[in-house]
């Protein structure tokens, strides 16, 4: 069994293998995240016998599986594809899966926007306090740290772009003492609604 490449051509890394031309019965599907690093945590119990056979199989030299989790992820993909083909329900299953992913993505975007809003409000408070107490250098460092977080954390282009625009406002505030004091809650709701309309 070959190991499926870590970055398949189709950007829908988490679902592409169910497509008619994207699935390889002899490949091992062991990814724990999609192409953007998203994942869902699932906990399950196994019988001792099931766990033992998995451990025995992944201990064989040349196996593509590094862990029991790899084995289980691979088994899920192959079983799901088998069921889709067997029941000839591919189109219906595909559409339901797309609907589920769409709703989960909107929830993830909402969490990202709300988290970013909290960070920005807290940072504005910190900047005001530092500038009022004459600690301008520390204030500049805080903005630099936030910029690093934005560039390394947010994978949504709109959220990243809007966050960088706020950073420009913060730097302007540190230079001139003037600027928007905080991100208003309605801005968060506006951004979420805008993402919904685009989706």
Radius of gyration: 23 Å
What does the largest sheet look like?
2 strands, parallel
Secondary structure tally, helices: 6
**Strand and helix order:** EEHHHHHH
Distance between the termini: 37 Å
- Domain tally: 2
CATH C-level class of the largest domain is Mainly Alpha
Tell me roughly what share of residues is in helical segments.
55-70%
Assign the structural class, choosing from mainly alpha, mainly beta, alpha/beta, alpha+beta, or little secondary structure.
mainly alpha
Q: How does CATH name the architecture of the largest domain? A: Up-down Bundle
According to DSSP, the number of beta strands is 2
Strand order of the largest sheet: 1-2
Tell me, rounded to a whole number, the average pLDDT. Answer: 76
Q: Which fold does the CATH topology of the largest domain refer to?
A: Methane Monooxygenase Hydroxylase, Chain G, domain 1
Any idea what the shape is?
elongated
Task: Explain what the structure shows.
This protein is mainly alpha-helical. It folds into 2 domains: 2-88, no CATH class; 95-198, Methane Monooxygenase Hydroxylase, Chain G, domain 1 (Up-down Bundle), CATH 1.20.58. The protein contains 6 helices and 2 strands. The protein has a two-stranded parallel ribbon. α3 (90-132) runs antiparallel to α6 and α4 runs antiparallel to α5. The chain is elongated and about 65 Å long. The relative contact order is 0.09.
